[in-house]
Amino acid sequence: MKLILVRHPETERNIKGELSGWEECEYSKLGREQFEKLSKYLSEIHLSIYSSDLPRAKLLAEEVARGHDVNLIIDKRLREVNCRETLPHDSYESDEDLRERVNLFLREISEDCVIVSHAGVVRWIVTMFCGKEKGGMVSGFPRDTIFEIETVKNENKLSIIRV
Questions:
Q1: Cis amide linkage into residue 9, ω under 30° from 0
Q2: For residues 61 and 116, what is the distance between their CA atoms, to the nearest angstrom?
């Protein structure tokens, strides 16, 4: 199986160092450039696309799917962790909550696919398949980086692609 993991482009909140959680936020100028580069690169990959329902990820997934004969599945389980500091304040999650919902999602995936999501989700998927050390490095890469996990002979291989 092959999983192509994509973080959403940079937002205005990312520039300010603010957490976003489930709150909506606009792409920054750099984020719009990343959007263009990522959508162009991903348009050459004709796999099903799974995306967070939050607009900062969903917009990219919809752009990649537009004009291509691929399945686009929007799934709330691919949302970023809802932080105590962000809205809605009455439904924040722990890291364990995030891991549990992402694990439930992954149990249902049996095909090569593209997953457009958020740092927390991408970090957890990489950690789960490739170990904590590799998962921990996800946030250190620019947002126009794609993480590809491929299972070869019962071993998970991580490739890092800059677009």
A1: no
A2: 6
Among residues 37, 21, 4, 39, which one has the least CA distance to residue 122?
4
Number of domains in the chain: 1
Domain with 97 in it: what CATH number? 3.40.50.1240
Question: Which residues in the chain land under pLDDT 70?
Answer: 18-23, 86-89
Report the amino acid identity of residue 120.
G
Structure tokens at 126: 């990489």
Distance CA 139, CA 128 (A): 16
Taking the C-alpha atoms of residue 151 and residue 39, their distance in angstroms, rounded to an integer, is 25
d(CA 129, CA 151): 9
pLDDT of residue 88: 66
pLDDT at position 67, please?
76
Query: Which backbone phi and psi does 148 adopt, to 5 degrees?
Result: -115, 125
Task: Supply the DSSP symbol for 27.
Answer: B
Q: Residue with structure tokens 């939050």?
A: 54
Residue 96 belongs to domain spanning: 2-162
The pTM score is 0.93
